[in-house]
Each structure stands twice: as structure tokens, then as C-alpha cells.
Design goal:
heterodimer; A: 331 residues; alpha/beta; Metallo-beta-lactamase, Chain A; Rossmann fold; seven-stranded mixed beta sheet; six-stranded mixed beta sheet; globular; B: 528 residues; alpha+beta; DNA ligase i, domain 1; D-amino Acid Aminotransferase, Chain A, domain 1; OB fold (Dihydrolipoamide Acetyltransferase, E2P); 3 domains; seven-stranded antiparallel beta sheet; 21 strands; 36% helix
Chain lengths: 331, 528
């Protein structure tokens, strides 16, 4: 019996349904978990993705792309294979893909988290026979602190920078992380500005009904007092000339990678804030358990370690080579 | 302990010297003297004797965390630091009720480890791990494992202490020298206006020279400068006070007992004398540093060893004369007193550093080129008017070293670094061609590449791995680097038959194919 979802050089393929999930080369029919760059490619014939991701998908895929928008938990069929999308809690519109054929159920999680996030629908466990999981933070050293505490740290850092007359540059991935940060910080502390890459996604989030606090595009701000401001920027802005306009400044970086002191120091960041859009070790094991799956495929991150751990705990688990990258693999 | 952990976090969050001093000063200003003393102790790089091995700590932590050995290894590779790996693996107990201070934690949970057996140690450490919240646990782990690196030097600590007291930096530096105990009285004494109870053995802070990189002609007229050989030994201060002799190494270790011949010679010095000089293996002429190394670590000195490798002090400065601190006098005056003092002692274990002649810079350059023939590392240039300063200062003292040897070698093994370089392949092993046309391991080197180059080599290592031996990856021989080193000796412990000193990467030779890397025969020819 062949597998319902098979890793190929273009991405996961469903032979009876004749479609791909998150392909990295153009294909006729693509089902997309979410529109982070490592999970979609331009040029596909048709994209099936969650209705909630409509506006951000338009920013990323353009007005011409053929989108087939699917509300969560609404089944459609491809050649007799039933496909439905279920909230993954990773970013706005992110989905797990449930695939059912002849009584067998597979779920591909894409990227997911179980921590609460006011910008997107919460992760829902989906019962299945085979679960395909990510393992970005698949080591027991990764253990997320309570978010409220992290946001208190960010607010305190911002205020401290204000008292020292420094602008606060806060780095987070432009799609998803940046908006989650905007929802979490205390906007009464001072004005919030954004990098262009963040601002265009903010518009799409607001159109989608996410109630972000007011932000202003930093390039258009005139006579701004940067020393009181929080500036939210993507990691790619680090070390660029764009930063010079803000004068004296301190940098903060929001990522699960900030757990490890060496990473923060290597990236030359003043402060690291541990806040991730992925599951930590315990959350991942909990999510795997909640599916009831007896077989688990591990796609990216610490794949070998997670697969080995699951095998030692009685599951049929293997690592699968993919091109997914996990959380902003800047270096 | 919470304040100290917060200090650690704040220091760790900035690379700016003034910010670090601001945080240190803020801590010291409010610290209980008992805590301040321990903070000075740890931040200036001191540490208590380590009571447990890394292996034991790792084992206890992984059992407490319920993690198998292989997974602990994976975690350690991702983190690159044992104290931090342990901290991250154990659950965070949240804010503890106990708000004990730094000195309590050190005196009640760290020092007692030294006299406990293994079971007691394990019980105590497990208990601490279960109590302390993450950030404090990390700092505590750093305290018990040593390696307390947070970008703070003894110098920064001194600057912060001087900033919060009426005492100048040089005085604080002097008070922090030598063999002190981290007691409340010590901390208060550091900041006090005048203590008047100077420790009999207390040495002076060493004045250190900067490397000279420019043309010496830029230093002005030759006649304003004193030139001496740059000896390759151990910097030391020999002190004679109230009929007692103390020999201090630059690492502020009291090494009087290790060099009985020098101690005996120093008995002929008058009370109130402090000489700055270099300990050398000396038998009518200087012997190679590798011989001195056999004496350095040795506490149990046999007559045979003392006869085979006798040690002498090459004296080059006098900083206390007739009980008076003469650091403020010009070098020319100090040198004259030094010459008298050494001559009066009349011992062949106490030598006056000879001046290197030549009336022009060109003469000195010629002498420098000839350094290796004299078994020295180059030339020291000291302004005749210079006072004896504290620490490494530009302007008056320069070390003008002979150019290092360089060799082009091929990268063949790589291993991940630790700390800031955790996760990246940054520790490299290089090879050269042997007589049979095979690549043979020649040296290991860590530093010298830029961050961008390190990332590039890291990517190369990952895609070119041919074999793995534990943490070590064997890579396709493809990249050539220029390696510099100070010295080389025959060695039967090295596969190449040669040991080199201070190897480091000078540059990546992207222009060279591996066939053009150097051969062992070329390197052997460098052996004197």
C-alpha cells in the first residue's frame, strides 16, 4: 500500500488526489498551509488555502493568482480524496491539512503553535492515523516562558530605552510575528512605527478584521521623536542603512532562538525575547499525542532527535527531508 | 542573588564599556559589602576550586530532567555551554520565596561542595536547581563551573569601583592585587580613603606594552628610547619586605615556592624592594621556553630538575626602592637604581636585562631581525622618561616582535565552537603535505576569521563532510589558509613531528589550490 502523502522533490504529493501540499516548485494544484516563503511558490495553477488567509495571500501571491478559499473544517474532494483545513495557530490563516482516503486519515501540520495568539484562530488537534509534524524547536531546551511575562519584559525594555533616550528597534518576522508583537505590547507607552515590509502586512491583517493598534510607516514619519518610539522591523533590516535615521538605539529580537545566549550574542542583538510562532518541545509532544497518530513523519528542525525520541516512546516515526526552514533562519 | 543575576543579565545585554561600568557601579553602590566582595571576586575572573567534574554535573542534570544521554548531547551541541544547557533542560520553578543574597548562596551552597562526598554534592546541587528560577540558576551554574564570562574584566570592575568612591583607579588596582579573601572588610577596604594596612606581600599592577605595528621612526629620536630584548619567559614581580620574599606571576599567582633559586637570590635584596622582570630557564644563556614549561606546573621539585633546568630572573624594572613606591620616577632613574640593586645582590640568578645597542632605528631593526638567534621574541622599546603605569597603555612602552612564521595549510577537520560560536563550525584542524604526498595534521586554530568568513566556512563544512568522529567532521580537503605561529619545536606527541606555539589564521588563501599548500619539509627547515 502506498502512502497517502509522499515526499517528492517538489514537496508532499497525494497520488490518488493528484495535488501537492506546500510545494516548492510550480504544480497544477497546490494546497497551502500558510504563505510564509518556504511553504508556497508562485506560479501554481490553483491554490487551495484557508479563507482567513485571503488578504495576506493577495499580498504575497498577487491579484492574478487563482485562489480557492476554504473555510476551516469544510471538506472538499480531489478525485475522491477528502481535504479539509484546520487552524494551526501559527499565523493568521495558517492551517493543518487533513487528507482522508478510503478510511485512512493523514494530517500535515505545516508550522504550528499551541500558545495563544490574538491574531489568529487557535490550534485544534485533529485525530489521524499519520501525523506530519514540524520540529523547529524539537529539543527539550526549548520551553516557552509565559507570554504575558515576555510582553512585560518588552514593555519594560521599551520604557528603559526611553529613559536612556534610545529608540527601541524590535525585530520579528514581517508576516505573523510582527503583528503578534503589535497586539502584545502596551501602545500607551509611546508611538509605534513600522518598517515597510511590516506595514503592508499590517494593512492585510486589518482588512482581515484583526484589531491592531495604530502604527505609522517609519519612512513617512516626519519630525518623529524616535527616542520614545518602538520600531517594529523584519530581521532582514538588521545592519542596514535604514536604521541610521533612528539615531541612538537598542535592538531587541523576538524569536524562539533567543532561548540560547550564544545565538543572541552571535547575532549581535542587545536583548532577546523568547517568543515563537512554533511549538516548544513539550507542546510538540503534546500535540503529537493529541492526534492519536501511531505513525509520525518529522519534516524540519531537529528532525532526527524528535523521530528518535518518538520511536523510543513506541511510535513509528521517521525524519523526512524537506525544504521547510522553520523560524527566521537568519544568521 | 536576584540583584546579582540581574546585574549579569544587564552586563550580558550590552557590549558598550560605559554601559557595563554604569551597571557595575549601580550594583556596587547598593551592595552589602559581603555581596560586593564576592561580586568583585567572580567578576574579576577569580573562582573557587571546582569540586565536581562536568561529566558529573551533566549526569545529575539529565537524570533530573529525565533525558537520555544522546538527547543531552544534542542539546549541548545546540547550546555550546554546560551551565546553560543544564539551566534550560530543567523546568523553571518560578519566583522562589527565598531571596537570599549572593554571599549566602556562595558561602552556603558553593563553598561547602568542596568538602562533600559525591552523594552530598548531588543532593545539594539538585536542591538548588529545584529552587532557583531560570536566570538565577544559570548564574549559579556559571559560578560553580567557572568560565564566568560576561565581557567584564578586572579593569572594568576597578573602573566601576573607582567611579563610586573617592579612590583613584590605580589605588583600587593596587588593592585588588595579590592574595585577598572576599570578605566584607576587603570590600570596604577597596573603597576606603586610606587603609594603611597594606598587605606585606602585595604586588603592584603590571605595566604592559602594546604591540608596535608602525615604523619605529614615528616614535621620534632613537636616543629617547631604551631598547631591550623581549624575553620569552614568565613575567614576574619579586618582592622583598621585612625579611620575606614573594614572587608573583602576572596571573597574580604567588609562585615563590616554585623557584627556590630565585627566592634564595632575592634574600640578598634589601627590604622594601620590588623588581619587575621575566623568569627564564637560564644556564649561562637563555634556554628554550619549552624547558621552562617543565618547571611552571611542578610543585614537587627534584634536585635533578633544578640542576637540569635552572631558573633565573631577568630584571628589567624597579618599582619599589628603599620601601618607596617609585613608579612615578622616570625609567632612566629607575634603571640606574635597578642596576645598583642587582649588582649589590651579586647572584647569577638575578640578572640585569641588557640594553640592545645601536644608535639608529635601522640598527635596531637589524637586531630585531636577528631575534631568533638570541632565543628572544623581539625587542622592547621603553621611553626613557616613562613612568611605570597600570595595565596595558599605549605610548611609552612597545613590544616590537619578530615577524611570526607563516605556513599555508589545508583545512581537514572542523568542530563546533562554544559560547558565542555555539552551533557554528569554528574550531579547525589544518594539514600540510608530508614526504609521501599525504596530508598530515599540523596545527589547530580557532581565531582569525571574520564572522562572515566563519559562516562561509561553516556552510562549506556542512556540505563537504566526508566522515564524522563524534563531534569532529572530516571535510573534503579544498580550502587553504595561511597560518601564523610564534615558534616551533620537534615533538613526538604530534603526528607531524612538530609542535607550534600560538597558531592562528592570518587569512583565507582563496587563490591557492591545495597542491600549493606547504610541505612538512619546508616547515622542518624552519627548526633551528
Amino acid at each position: 500500500m502506498t502512502d497517502l502523502l509522499m515526499p517528492t522533490e517538489k514537496g508532499f504529493y497525494c497520488p490518488p488526489g493528484d495535488f501537492y501540499i506546500d510545494p516548492w516548485q510550480p504544480v497544477p494544484r497546490a494546497v497551502i498551509t500558510h504563505v510564509h516563503a518556504d511553504h508556497y511558490t508562485p506560479g501554481c495553477g490553483a491554490y487551495t488555502l484557508s479563507a482567513a488567509s485571503e488578504h495576506i495571500a493577495r499580498v504575497r501571491l498577487g491579484p492574478q493568482a487563482n485562489l480557492r478559499l476554504l473555510p476551516y473544517r469544510t471538506p472538499v474532494t480531489f478525485n475522491g480524496v477528502t481535504v479539509s483545513l484546520h487552524p494551526a495557530g501559527h499565523i493568521l490563516g495558517s492551517a493543518q491539512v487533513r487528507v482522508e482516503h478510503q478510511g485512512e486519515v493523514w494530517v500535515l501540520s505545516g508550522d504550528y503553535k499551541t500558545d495563544p495568539d490574538p491574531t489568529c484562530a487557535p490550534f485544534e488537534p485533529v485525530a489521524c492515523d499519520v501525523f506530519i509534524t514540524e520540529a523547529t524547536f524539537g529539543l527539550p531546551i526549548y520551553h516557552w516562558p509565559p507570554q504575558a511575562a515576555v510582553f512585560r519584559q518588552i514593555n519594560a525594555w521599551w520604557q528603559d530605552n526611553q529613559s536612556q533616550g534610545r529608540a527601541s528597534i524590535l525585530y520579528g518576522y514581517a508576516l505573523g510575528k510582527a503583528q503578534r508583537l503589535l497586539m502584545g505590547v502596551d501602545p500607551s507607552i509611546g508611538p509605534i512605527y513600522t518598517h515597510g515590509a511590516v506595514e503592508s502586512i499590517n494593512d492585510a491583517y486589518r482588512t482581515s478584521g484583526v484589531d491592531l493598534p495604530p502604527t505609522a510607516y517609519a519612512l513617512e514619519a516626519e519630525d518623529a521623536d524616535w527616542s520614545r518610539a518602538l520600531i517594529v522591523a523584519p530581521p532582514s533590516a538588521r545592519g542596514t542603512r535604514w536604521l541610521t535615521r533612528f539615531g541612538p538605539q537598542a535592538s531587541g529580537y523576538c524569536s524562539g532562538w533567543m532561548t540560547v545566549r550564544g545565538t543572541r550574542r552571535r547575532w549581535s542583538i542587545d536583548r532577546g525575547f523568547v517568543i515563537s510562532d512554533h511549538v516548544d518541545w513539550a507542546q510538540m509532544l503534546g500535540a503529537v499525542r493529541a492526534t492519536g497518530a501511531q505513525r509520525v513523519l518529522v519534516t524540519h528542525g531537529y528532525t532526527a532527535a524528535v523521530a528518535r525520541w518518538l520511536r523510543e516512546h513506541g511510535l513509528d516515526a521517521a525524519a523526512v527531508d524537506t525544504r521547510y526552514r522553520g523560524e527566521d533562519e537568519a544568521s | 542573588m536576584r540583584q546579582f543575576a540581574e546585574l549579569y543579565t544587564a552586563l550580558d545585554a550590552t557590549t558598550k564599556t560605559n554601559e557595563k561600568i554604569r551597571h557595575l557601579a549601580g550594583y556596587f553602590r547598593q551592595a552589602d559589602p559581603a555581596d560586593g566582595a564576592w561580586a568583585v571576586y567572580f567578576l574579576s575572573g577569580r573562582r573557587p576550586r571546582r569540586a565536581m567534574s562536568s561529566r558529573q554535573l551533566a549526569e545529575w542534570a539529565r537524570q533530573l530532567a529525565g533525558v537520555p544521554e544522546w538527547l543531552f548531547g544534542e542539546c549541548y551541541d545546540a547550546v555550546g555551554d554546560l551551565a546553560e544547557t543544564i539551566t534550560l533542560l530543567l523546568p523553571d520553578p518560578g519566583d522562589p520565596p527565598a531571596a537570599e543574597s549572593l554571599h549566602w548562596w556562595v558561602e552556603e551552597t558553593i563553598l561547602p561542595l568542596q568538602t562533600m562526598d559525591e552523594d552530598q554534592q548531588r543532593a545539594l546541587i539538585t536542591d538548588v536547581w529545584n529552587q532557583l528560577p531560570t536566570r538565577q540558576r544559570f548564574v549559579w551554574n556559571k559560578l560553580i563551573t567557572g568560565g564566568f564570562r560576561v565581557g567584564v574584566s578586572q579593569k572594568l570592575v576597578m573602573r566601576a569601583l573607582a567611579a563610586i568612591s573617592a579612590v583613584d583607579r590605580a589605588t583600587v588596582a593596587h588593592r585588588m592585587m595579590g592574595d585577598w579573601q572576599p570578605t566584607p572588610a576587603f570590600f570596604s577596604g577597596l573603597l576606603a580613603e586610606e587603609t594603611g594596612d597594606a598587605d606585606l606581600s602585595r604586588p603592584y599592577p603590571f605595566y604592559l606594552a602594546y604591540p608596535l605595528e608602525d615604523d619605529p621612526a614615528a616614535l621620534g629620536p632613537r636616543e629617547n628610547w631604551q631598547a631591550e630584548w623581549k624575553w620569552d619567559g614568565i613575567r614576574a614581580q619579586v618582592i622583598r619586605r621585612q625579611g620575606q620574599t614573594f614572587i608573583w606571576s602576572r596571573g597574580e599567582e604567588l609562585v615563590t615556592d616554585r623557584y627556590p633559586e630565585v627566592t634564595a637570590a632575592a634574600a640578598h635584596l634589601p627590604d622594601g624592594t620590588a623588581i619587575d622582570g621575566e623568569l627564564l630557564a637560564w644556564d649561562a644563556e637563555v634556554l628554550h621556553f619549552s624547558l621552562l614549561q617543565k618547571r611552571i606546573g611542578r610543585k614537587n621539585l627534584t634536585n635533578k630538575l633544578l640542576a637540569e633546568i635552572p631558573v633565573a630572573l631577568m630584571a628589567y624594572d624597579l618599582i619599589e626602592h628603599a620601601g618607596r613606591d617609585i613608579r612615578g620616577e622616570p625609567l632612566a632613574a629607575r634603571r640606574a637604581w635597578l642596576a645598583e640593586t642587582v649588582a649589590a645582590a651579586g647572584s647569577d640568578r638575578l640578572l640585569l636585562s641588557p640594553l640592545v645597542g645601536g644608535s639608529t632605528w635601522a640598527d635596531l631593526e637589524a637586531a630585531r631581525q636577528n631575534s631568533r638567534a638570541h632565543n628572544v621574541e623581539g625587542i622592547m622599546l621603553k621611553r626613557l622618561e616613562s613612568v611605570y603605569k597600570v595595565g596595558r597603555k599605549r605610548g611609552d612602552w612597545w613590544k616590537w616582535k619578530v615577524d611570526p612564521y607563516t605556513v599555508d595549510a589545508v583545512l581537514i577537520y572542523a568542530q563546533r565552537g562554544s559560547g558565542r560560536r555555539a552551533g557554528l563550525y569554528t574550531d579547525y584542524t589544518f594539514a600540510v603535505w608530508d614526504d609521501d604526498g599525504e596530508l598530515v595534521t599540523f596545527a589547530k586554530a580557532y581565531s582569525g576569521l571574520t564572522d562572515a568568513e566563519i559562516r562561509e566556512v561553516d556552510a562549506f563544512v556542512r556540505r563537504s563532510t566526508q566522515d564524522r568522529f563524534g563531534p569532529v567532521r572530516a571535510v573534503t580537503p579544498e580550502l587553504v589558509f595561511e597560518i601564523a605561529f610564534e615558534d616551533l619545536r620537534p615533538s613526538n606527541r604530534h603526528k607531524s613531528g612538530i609542535a607550534v606555539r600560538f597558531p592562528r589564521i592570518v587569512r583565507w588563501r582563496r587563490d591557492k589550490p591545495i597542491e600549493e599548500a606547504d610541505s612538512l619539509a619546508t616547515i622542518r627547515a624552519l627548526l633551528r
